Amino acid sequence: MRTRILAPDANPLRDPRDRRLPRIAGPCSLVIFGVTGDLARKKLMPAVYDLANRGLLPPGFALVGFARRDWADQDFAQIVHDSVRENARTPFREDVWQELCKGIRFVAGDFSEEGAFDQLSQVVLDLDRVRGTRGNHAFYLSIPPKFFGDVVQQLKRSGLSVSAEGAWRRVVIEKPFGHDLESARELNATINEVFPSGTVFRIDHYLGKETVQNLLALRFANTLFEPIWNSNYVDHVQITMAEDIGIAGRAGYYDGIGAARDVIQNHLLQLLALTAMEEPLSFLAKDVRVEKGKVLSALTLPKDLDLHTSRGQYAAGWQGGLQVQGFLEEEGISPTSTTETFAAVRLGIDTRRWSGVPFYLRTGKRLGRRVTELAIVFKRAPHLPFSATDTEELGQNSIVIRIQPDEGITMRFGSKVPGTQMEVRDVNMDFAYGDSFTESSPEAYERLILDVLLGDPPLFPRHEEVELGWKILDPVLEHWASRGQPEQYESGTWGPASSHEMLARDGRAWRRP
Amino acid sequence: MSVRLDDTTASEVGTAISAERFRQGSSAVGRVLTLVIVADEATQADAVRAAAEAAREHPCRILTAIPRPGRGPARLDAEITVGGADGLGELAELRLRGPLSHHVSSVVLPLLVPDAPVVVWWPGTAPDDVAADPVGRLAQRRITDAGAASRPVRALEVRRTSYRAGDTDLAWTRITPWRALVASALDEPFETVVRASVSAQRNNPSALLLAAWMQRGLAVPVDVHVSRGPGLTGVVLHTERGDISITRPDGRVARMVRPGFPDREAPLQRRTIEALIAEELRRLDPDEIYGETLQALPQLATWAAHSDHRGSAAVPAAKGAKAAGASRAKPAAKRPATKPTTAPTGRRGRGA
Questions:
Q1: Contact A55 B278 (CB under 8 A)
Q2: Which residues pair with A290 in a beta bridge?
Q3: How far apart are CA A495 and CA A48, in angstroms?
Q4: Cα–Cα 20 to 30 A to A471, which of A136, A231, A436, B2?
């Protein structure tokens, strides 16, 4: 799905027809801030190793850790080693590790400590000399956004943000990109002051997932689906991202943010955009962005937000055989917190293709099971040449794209039940995205980190998309803020009653994913 | 679960596979292709293991045909494994005895997954013209292994003269990581390359392919030197401002040396057959670059010496190896005056 355009004759050994040949990142280093965090240990460092193991990192690649720990290089190397051993996707190989290990450095310090950044600057210069990283460095801010300002200012002050001619500096940030439109703009201004927009990579790891990329292949490589992908045939669309866990020790992050900001604003709106957008001119970043932008700007909110949105907080209950406590009883959460752990909204898209087709988005914690999927539910046939009793069990046709787990696609349609009577019942046709190959398909973070190092932006949302997301969500959040306490829902169920009522009002029901 | 069928027919085998699938409650999803392995008893076990491993990435039906010519009557024995403990797809081992051993395609044809691509792999000896072979004709993609032949360079020449779109060879697959590394060296600004060389164990077909590929792309003469191995040991790009070299003396770690850079290292393991097959199955369209590289082989100065195949002698060297730099537009037409390494036949040079 990605087309790379190289300057013609730039490299005589590359030929666009030579699809075997992978691109290896050029000489560079990756500097990770917040290496003690969960994400760094579970995803980033293993992904770096996996890339090295697949031979996609350049010779002399360097990995620099920055954190408030009293560590030497080898202590950090040990941490990386452990996290790789535990979480890497590909088998551990001593050769690969030894090579990676030679490029591992650690800088101890605070995010606002000048001395530490001066030292980092020295380390980076040293790497250019010893490892040949050529002044190419990516800074991965795996830290809470409130520190972004400090870090980018320090990067600027210590001269780390500017690159020499022909070299690059890039900065990678993770969601949340602000907590409303205004703060998103501020955050962006803070970062743009130091890093121009082309060098800022926003990670939405969903966009790195194979199934999400497959959504574009499904829609635009086939003739089977696109003709019915519009309001003539589609009744409505449901996009669900459910988690079975609670906030699990992330109270500090989660309280005051909530489900809508955490998930709908970024992941679900991105999924919506990819589902609903028109065919881009090409899969180049700019073309895809234009189409996503059009859809996001055409989003509309229902007039009465009370009737067509829903929010809730999980209450104590039994979840998958475990007794769990409610959100308000979680450690670090105020008993009067109004932060929602479940959010659902109905959105419309004012375009010829989608006018009149509601898009229902929902996300929540402590729901029935962990699942992310999007379901296109089709209209019923205008006429059924059967008697009413024949088709009693016939539902609406649907296409379900399962993003995780069990990546794949399910089609649901009616089929005759064997027997002398005509009886039509729903059946599933399943495409498991390669029955058993998920274990060897790369992790989203591998793909995204490699793309950062290659400077390949199609899979990263731009600031404009972030702003459009907030524009649509801000009125909902304001409305909710005026409504006090969210509704409680029992842990392990599919959300509060209001979310079911919200669909029932439109004569529809949530799928049980 | 394994099912044995002695003295059977292809249609019984097909029925048994479906029944076994049905019994296990899994429907016929997820088989994206049929992989036919044509092997003898000596090579089949390793090949099947490799294919089963590759099937984790590419769910497929694997048909292993083991012809056992001999005097007895024609007879087909089959052993079927469906969805083993490791979750792979379907595996059928087919032993074709007596006169039947010359009619492999008659057994394989009814067992191909409908509408799905077919790949044939000869892990050992392959027919000279694989595309014309009755089994090869069923396939979109035909995989051979010059490295496994008793005379690898001759095998390469056979592949070259019979090449048809859809052919591929593991000697070519083996050098993908090398090619990636060499190509990446030229992703950065570089001085004009005037000459290049490849070193490898003698009689290494992968080294010749690598050299031909470089010569074709860079349009400069590329020599092949004999080293002690293992496999490929180095590539040097001679530029006007010094040499860019990638050496791998131990078959594990490559060292890149380039003017203006500190020496850098990167892991570059020799790959397992599983990894090679998985790479082959990743793309099923014709590998044009491989075809063009094969055709560029005779332009290698070393080819004449290497090739024990009569009639493929290189044209005498053109004067002056001053190639006008690297440009993709120009095919590697210039032939250099270089000292070709003589390569006596005998030892087998395998692997990249």
A1: no
A2: none
A3: 37
A4: A231
When pLDDT is cut at 50, 70 and 90, the band that residue B338 belongs to is: very low
How are strands ordered across the β-sheet holding B90-97? B2-5, B75-82, B90-97, B60-68, B33-38, B118-121, B141-144, B167-169
Measured in degrees and rounded to the nearest 5, phi and psi for residue A364 equal -170, 165
Neighbouring residues of B252: CB distance < 8 A, sequence distance ≥ 6: A95, B267, B268, B269, B270
Q: Does B296 touch chain A (CB under 8 A)?
A: no
Q: Buried b / exposed e across B321-345, counting CB within 10 Å, b at 16+? A: bebebbebebebebbbebebbebee
Q: Which residue type, as a one-letter code, is found at position A211?
A: T
Q: Between β-strands A299-300 and A342-349, what pairing exists: parallel, antiparallel or unpaired?
A: antiparallel
Instruction: Provide the token pair at A347.
Output: 């959105």
B/e letters for A348-369, b = 16+ CB within 10 Å, e = fewer, are: bbebebbeebbbbbbbbbbbbe
Closest-CA residue of chain B to A129: B262
Whether pLDDT at A77 is above 60:
yes
Residue A95: list chain B partners with CB under 8 A: 252-253, 267, 269
Which amino acid would we find at residue A301? L
Q: What is the CA angle B176-B180-B186, rounded to 5?
A: 150
Residue whose structure tokens are 């956004």: A145
- Chain centroid to CA B254: 22
Q: What is the pLDDT of residues B243-287, one digit of tens each?
A: 999 999 999 999 999 988 889 988 898 999 999 998 998 888 899
Q: How far is A438 from chain B (nearest CA, A)?
A: 7
pLDDT confidence band for B236 (50 / 70 / 90): very high
Q: If residue A273 lies in a helix (H) or strand (E), which one and from where to where?
A: helix A269-276
Instruction: Give B189 or B77, the one with higher predicted confidence.
Output: B77
What is the tens place of the pLDDT at every residue in A156-213?
A: 999 999 988 889 999 999 888 889 999 999 999 999 999 998 899 998 888 887 778 8
Establish if B165 touches chain A: CB-CB under 8 angstroms: no
Rounded mean pLDDT of A305-315?
Answer: 95
Residue A264 near residue A343 (C-beta atoms within 8 A): yes
**Using CA of residue B128, residue B131, residue B136, residue B142, what is the dihedral sign?**
positive
Contact yes or no for B149/B125 (Cβ under 8 A): yes
Do A15 and B217 make contact, defined as CB atoms within 8 angstroms?
Answer: yes
Identify the bridge partners of residue B224 per DSSP, sorted by sequence position.
B198
The answer for residues whose C-beta is within 8 angstroms of residue A385's C-beta and 6 or more apart is: none
The answer to whether residue A7 scores a pLDDT higher than 70 is: no
Chain B closest-CA separation from residue A127 CA (Å): 10
Separation of alpha carbons B170 and B273, rounded Å: 9
pTM, two decimals, is 0.85
DSSP string, B286-300: --HHHHHHHHHGGGS
Contact call for B56 and A437, based on CB within 8 A: yes
Cβ-Cβ contacts under 8 Å, B214 against chain A: 13
Closest by Cβ to A436, choosing from B88, B218, B328: B88
The catalytic residues of A are 267
> How far, CA to CA in Å, does A253 sit from each of A116, A245, A256?
26, 15, 8
Of B177, B264, B288, the CB nearest to A131: B264
The token pair that represents A383 in the structure block: 């006429």
What confidence category does residue B342 fall into, taking pLDDT thresholds of 50, 70 and 90?
A: very low
Average pLDDT over residues A398-408: 86
Predicted local distance difference test score (pLDDT) of residue B330: 40
Instruction: For Cα atoms B292, B294, B296, give the angle at the middle one, nearest 5 degrees.
Output: 70
Q: How far is C-alpha A13 from the geometric centre of its chain's CA atoms?
A: 35
DSSP A413-474: EEEEPSSSS--EEEEEEEEESSTTTGGGSPPHHHHHHHHHHHT--TTS--HHHHHHHHHHHH
Whole-number pLDDT of residue B323: 39
In contact, B269 and B275? CB cutoff 8 Å: no
